[in-house]
Design a protein that fits this description.
Blueprint (H helix, E strand, L loop, with lengths): L1 H17 L19 H13 L10 E4 L4 H8 L5 E6 L18 E5 H11 L15 H13 L18 H12 L8 E2 L2 E2 L1 H22 L4 H7 L2 H10 L7 H18 L7 E2 L6 H13 L2 E7 L6 E7 L13 H16 L7 H28 L6 H23 L23 H5 L11
Parallel strand pairs: 1-2
Antiparallel strand pairs: 2-3, 4-5, 6-8, 7-8
Helix pairs in contact: 8-13, 10-11, 10-12
């Protein structure tokens, strides 16, 4: 690099001396003796010139390079006339092209067009009453730059399951449009993260991680149980002949069974009334049982008390009920239903208890899923509190470090992200921890 700097100095001196088009032009050479990436040196120069009182806002910038960071840097300049000069990139093993300059295709990427696309993407936020604060497209662009950090950059790995080639940016756009109306302002405040607004974003990202977890576990039997309510599970079991009754349902069944036996023997002319004290799940049980036994059921209102109770009675003759003239096969089916319910085991687990058990199992599996990620990727457990804290703190530090780097320059030369992978989204620390590494964090570094 020292030799390259020396040759560039010679080249510039030669062109200024011999080529009139190079004369009267300001040329800045920042070589190996000045630390930093080339594009950030250019952005530092643009920031300095914009701070001058005679800066022309209509000046045009053209930056050369293929790095995606150049798009973000150009956008955060907020200058309307900014373009990138990019060479054509071809993919595939059989792509053989001459490396000579005259055979190379170049393209100009106008960031003004990118800005228009972003404005179209977030136009719904401009509608009256959507935001509790003024809509500012320049601030939305700043937030977009921060959102892009979560799908990875040169200094931080992408969050798990957020891959740009799998539509991660579109997911982030949807989340952003969902949380911004709930916030009192933007997330990126000219290069500093608003921690309260970041918390809203992280909460939505946690929900996104749960969806990824459920997608990966969709074939597991325990998860299929989680997707259905307890009553739906019981109905499914009954349809397959695997009936499970509670003690209360068993008692209700015994009373209905005696009534049905009398109906079959034509000794039950009166309807069968059930108590008003039935729970909703028991009422559903009675309705399903009545349908299986070909009994008519109604919800009857007591004129004195106003309470409603279920009432069972046979269908009229000729309505395909028990008293039908051709009821031989029907009676066999009814007796089969009675036999199945009589043999059904009794398990005293309420729907609420069953749902709580499913929720507990869901949380255990989710924790095991996260634990496997940390063990396989990072070599420590989810339950190693110090390691998890160090990891997540280092990651949130990285968010602010990169933002400072983009907007102000290097905040700390010694800092770096110490891990090969990012934390799980649900492992990013709460605001109390984020507060400890906020804007006052960086002066602790030399």
């Amino acid at each position: 690099m020292a030799k390259l700097t020396q040759q560039l100095r010679y080249f510039i001196h030669k062109k200024v001396t011999e080529d009139t088009e190079w004369q009267g032009v300001e040329i800045v050479l920042s070589g190996h003796e000045v630390p930093g990436e080339g594009e950030h040196k250019v952005m530092e120069y643009i920031r300095l010139t914009k701070a001058q009182p005679d800066y022309d806002p209509n000046i045009r910038h053209c930056l050369y390079g293929l790095d995606a960071d150049l798009i973000m840097l150009g956008l955060l300049s907020h200058d309307p006339h900014f373009c990138l000069l990019r060479e054509e990139v071809t993919f595939g093993r059989n792509q053989r092209r001459s490396k000579e300059l005259e055979h190379q295709n170049f393209y100009l990427m106008h960031l003004s067009v990118v800005r228009e696309y972003l404005e179209h993407e977030f136009q719904e936020l401009k509608q009256p009453g959507v935001l509790s604060f003024p809509f500012d497209m320049e601030r939305v662009i700043d937030d977009f730059i921060l959102l892009a950090f979560f799908v990875g950059n040169d200094f931080l790995p992408n969050l798990p399951n957020l891959h740009i080639n799998e539509g991660a940016l579109s997911l982030m756009f949807g989340i952003y449009k969902k949380i911004l109306p709930k916030a009192n302002g933007y997330i990126n405040e000219h290069g500093s993260i608003n921690l309260a607004h970041l918390e809203l974003l992280l909460q939505q990202l946690e929900e996104l991680e749960l969806r990824f977890f459920e997608a990966e576990c969709s074939d597991a039997n325990w998860f299929k149980g989680k997707q259905h309510s307890t009553m739906a599970q019981m109905e499914e079991a009954r349809s397959k002949g695997r009936l499970v009754l509670t003690t209360g349902e068993k008692e209700i069944f015994q009373g209905i069974k005696k009534y049905v036996e009398k109906v079959i023997e034509h000794k039950a002319p009166q309807p069968y009334d059930l108590p008003v004290s039935l729970k909703a799940s028991e009422r559903k049980f009675v309705e399903d049982l009545a349908n299986a036994l070909r009994l008519k059921w109604d919800s009857i209102r007591d004129e004195d008390t106003g309470d409603r109770h279920l009432q069972l009675q046979p269908f009229p003759v000729g309505d395909e009920g028990i008293d039908s003239e051709d009821d031989g096969e029907g009676q066999v089916a009814i007796l089969r239903v009675l036999s199945n319910y009589s043999k059904a085991p009794v398990v005293d687990v309420t729907p609420e208890q069953a749902q709580a058990d499913l929720d507990r199992k869901y949380k255990e599996k989710f924790a095991a899923w996260r634990d496997e990620y940390y063990k396989s990727k990072l070599g420590f457990s989810l339950y190693d509190e110090k390691e998890i804290r160090d990891l997540t703190e280092n990651y949130v530090e990285g968010l602010q470090w990169v933002l400072f780097y983009y907007y102000r320059g290097v905040a700390s030369w010694p800092w770096f992200y110490r891990y090969h992978y990012s934390p799980k989204i649900s492992g990013i620390p709460p605001p109390t921890l984020i507060q400890s590494i906020g804007s006052d964090y960086w002066p602790r570094y030399p």
